[in-house]
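Thread: Newbie trying to understand structure tokens

Hi all, I'm a second-year student working on a class project, and my supervisor (Dr. K.) asked me to get a predicted structure for one chain before our next meeting. I've only ever worked with sequences, so writing a 3D structure as a token string is new to me. If someone could post the tokens and maybe explain what I'm looking at, I'd be very grateful. Here's the chain:
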Amino acid sequence: MRLFITSDKDFPVDKDLKLKMNDAFKLICDEEEIKECSINLKIMSDKSMQKLNKNYRSKNTSTNVLSFTNEDISKTITGNLGDIAISYEFVKRESVELDIEFDDHMIHMLIHGVYHILGFDHNNNKMAEIMENKEIKLLKKLNIRNPY
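---
Reply by user tm_fold:
Sure, no problem. This is what the structure looks like when written as tokens:
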């Protein structure tokens, strides 16, 4: 299980946060019984996130997290589940507004993004509740308070 983290040069991710994010990813894989997998995570600016959101969701605004499921035939060979993009600036603002530690909110966005890749969404109340409960359970195991 590997989480490959890269970031725009203006938004470096410190070693401590990278370790926490890797721990969170391993926990999700254990909880969901996923073996031999990887995800690519890119930490980026609001401007870069806005471009992605416009290109892939036709929304000309930034957002906190976007997920892209690997639907290529290489998935069975490489184990790469997909890509996640997180806007550093957006999450920073949200963490202040919501009075949540920045690292905790970044980890939550990673978990949220992984669950999207695994097929969960919040398009209807039942699925949203299932997804949120899974997130809350994992966050609790990581000693992060319930953000909902």
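A couple of things are worth pointing out once you decode it. Strands lie at 2-7, 38-44, 65-69, 80-87. The two ends are 28 Å apart (CA to CA). Feel free to ask follow-ups in this thread.
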